[in-house]
Each structure stands twice: as C-alpha cells, then as structure tokens.
Specification:
rod-shaped; mainly alpha; 71% helix; single chain
Length: 110
C-alpha cells in the first residue's frame, strides 16, 4: 500500500498545496479572534449556569433534610416534655440553631 508520494521529501509542500494551508500561520489565520472569544464566553456562561443550578439543587436538598430533621426532633421533644404545640417547639429549635451558628464576629455587625 505504500506509494511513492510518501517517500518524497517534498510531501510537506504537496500537503500545503492540497489543503490550501499557509505554511507559517497554520489554521489560526482562518478563524476570527472575536468569534473564538464569543463562543468561549458563551460556553463559560453555560457551564457557570449548570454549576449554579447543581449548587441550588444541593442547597434545596440539604435544606429539606434539615427541615425534616428539625420536625422529627421537635416531635420527639414534644412527646418527652408533653407539649401539645409541636410548631412552637420547632420554632424554638430553629432559633437556637441560628444562635449557635453565629460566630463571635457576628456580634460586631449588629
């Protein structure tokens, strides 16, 4: 299957002529830089949007898990204490968890 064309030392010149390439600039001269940057910006924006959507899904899932844990905990505490209003116990738990989450630096903000 070998042909004499591959044995020719001038194969580069033949390839340049065949594919209409510029020997010194390559394929880069065929593209406009603005087209490249616009497409790059568009793809980056799409990737950023996908990442943000995934992050929001994770946040919603974590918040739902946290809410169900608080509800279960409030029901157990209400059963132990004998309280009839589970919502009130749940609100107290949420307030306590928010107070615990504040750092020592948060006191200077308020």
């Amino acid at each position: 299957m070998e042909t004499n064309d591959y044995m020719n030392p001038l194969i580069l010149e033949k390839a340049l002529d065949l594919f209409d390439l510029d020997q010194y600039s390559g394929l880069a001269s065929r593209f406009e830089p603005s087209d490249y940057y616009e497409e790059l910006a568009q793809r980056q924006n799409e990737m950023l949007q996908v990442q943000q959507e995934e992050m929001m899904k994770k946040r919603r899932m974590i918040e739902a898990q946290r809410q169900s844990m608080v509800e279960q905990r409030a029901i157990r505490i209400a059963e132990i204490v004998g309280a009839t209003d589970v919502k009130q116990v749940e609100e107290q738990l949420i307030q306590q968890s928010q107070q615990k989450q504040q750092s020592r630096f948060d006191s200077f903000i308020h």
